[in-house]
Design a protein that fits this description.
- Helices cover 17% and strands 36% of the residues.
- The chain is built from 3 helices and 7 strands.
- The chain has a domain at 53-160: Hotdog Thioesterase (Thiol Ester Dehydrase, Chain A), CATH 3.10.129.10.
- A 7-stranded antiparallel beta sheet has the order 1-2-3-5-6-7-4.
């Protein structure tokens, strides 16, 4: 993620809209929204088709649609794609909790898979478990269209000073 220069605010958009994030546009006033462009900030996430639905310091939500090109055999969404969804949203969650001028990178990630995804959309919900001076720990739940947990990911993000 890019370094954090301004206080981050709630960011949201509707599914199907093009999300945008521009640090210069993020207003420091509480309760305001700024657009979020995942593809511009995180090209790999954009290529996968990850959509950020809302982004706040306490929770980031996003979605990813099932596509045949994201699957392994038998039309099952690839575990690496699911892990990428969680890593991307977890990084955004950590980014929103950084001190001014800080930056972050994933240094550890653990995934438990519970159900296969064979269609529909996967919804991701990332929440911080620990926000410290040196690390931020984020947990992401991935849910299918039936609201079943398909995976749970816990990742550790390093906090780097400017």
């Amino acid at each position: 993620m890019a370094s954090r220069e301004n206080e981050r605010q709630e960011v949201s958009h509707r599914p199907g809209e093009s999300p945008r994030l521009d640090a210069a546009e993020a207003a420091p006033k509480s309760g305001t929204s700024a657009p979020l462009d995942v593809a511009a900030q995180m090209p790999f996430a954009g290529r996968l088709g990850i959509e950020v639905i809302s982004a706040r310091k306490d929770e980031v939500q996003g979605e990813l649609a099932w596509r045949p090109d994201l699957c392994t055999t038998a039309g099952v969404m690839h575990g690496g794609v699911l892990m990428s969804l969680a890593d991307s949203l977890g990084a955004i969650c950590a980014f929103l909790n950084l001190p001014a001028g800080g930056s972050t990178a994933t240094i550890e990630s653990k995934t438990n898979f519970f159900h296969a995804v064979r269609g529909g959309r996967v919804r991701a919900v990332s929440k911080p478990l620990h926000i410290g001076r040196a690390i931020i720990v984020v947990q992401t739940d991935l849910l299918d269209d039936q609201e079943r947990r398909v995976a749970q990911i816990t990742q550790t993000q390093t906090v780097r000073s400017a």
